[in-house]
Amino acid sequence: MSIALTSGASLHPLVLPARADAADAGEFRELSRVRNAVYRELTGRSEQDLTPEALLPLLRSRPERTTVVWAVRVDGDIVGRAVVDIPHEEGSRVAIASIEMLPRVWGRGIGRAIVPHIEAVVRQHGRTVIQNWTEQQAGDGRRLQARTGFGSVPDDHVARFLTRQGFSLEQVYRVSRLDMAPGAVERAAALLREAEGFSTDYRVLQWIVPTPAEHLDGYAWLKSRMSTDAPSADLETDEETWDADRLIAAEKRIAEMGQTVQVTAAQHIATGELTAFTELGIGPDVRGTTHQHDTLVLKEHRGHRLGQLVKSTALLSWPEVAPDSPDLITYNAEENRPMLSINEAMGFVPIAYEGAWKKELT
């Protein structure tokens, strides 16, 4: 059932097809195309493109999360989408929401008309906080400072829209790029030698997902600590519960998306505990950009250069996995100076910034 928004604009609940190539998947495939076009126009880059086959698993609800998706239409054409994720963590107050539309339809009041429908879904699920992550193109004009005191984003149309809808800029992530040139390998090798001198009580383990059975529990524990040990400013962060079953399901989605993900972990030799990890991933096009996904060192094991150990090891081994990938993209909180310092030493350079926004519902 469509929802009228403004003149010519409407909101359509999206029923996900069973398969991206199913006979009834036409609307979903068009939404996928528009989603990629929106990201390209917002960022000026293409490495966030996803095929319909890769996008579909991300939009399905799952045991730990309910996802609601709408297509935004103007005069019958899909021009964007709105998405709400409702985490199922016990005691959660949070929903994660986004409105993504082609810039050619900005300024018509469509986004403003969508917000009440998002808030209604959030309230129906008993949540009181909406959070949003949006990347913005670099600009030379006025900037908006994050409440952390670290980092800023352009005070552009995106920032003004979110601010007018009651969102505050809580945190800024730096988007950094590394050119996979010979110099990057040389720097990573030097950093690895240095890290090995500080981490003699640890060994490095690597695997391509799916994770070997003997590491499922340890890796799941590391994934759960991402929600408690990574910098999160004053955002509402649910303590996520990961176990072997949740990890296996997540890795099945990775396979369905046609992605290859390598995990590099540090293991404490005396106890056998996994204490740090980083993930590198690439999609079906092995000539495309590599993404650095989660990276974490457990709080109780910091001070041993484990972040440097796993990141440099991962980079050195990645050409064996994706030799034709030209570059690597990573996202880090601006206040996460230890991780940023490692990235800078490896040769990463900033290319953009992503704002983390929060709205408290009354």
Describe the structure.
It is a single chain. This protein has 362 residues and is α+β, with helices and mostly antiparallel strands. It has nine helices and 15 strands. The chain has a 13-stranded mixed β-sheet with strand order 1-2-3-4-5-6-15-9-14-13-12-11-10, with helices on both faces. Strand 5 (94-101), helix 3 and strand 6 form a beta-alpha-beta unit. Helix 5 packs antiparallel against helix 8 (306-321) and helix 6 (216-229) packs across helix 7. The longest helix has 18 residues, at 26-43.
Helix and strand layout, with pairings?
Layout: E1 3-4, E2 9-13, H1 26-43, H2 52-59, E3 65-74, E4 77-87, E5 94-101, H3 110-124, E6 129-136, E7 143-145, E8 152-154, H4 157-164, E9 168-179, H5 182-198, E10 202-208, H6 216-229, H7 244-256, E11 260-268, E12 274-282, E13 290-297, H8 306-321, E14 327-333, H9 337-346, E15 349-360
Parallel strand pairs: 5-6, 13-14
Antiparallel strand pairs: 1-2, 2-3, 3-4, 4-5, 6-15, 7-8, 9-14, 9-15, 10-11, 11-12, 12-13
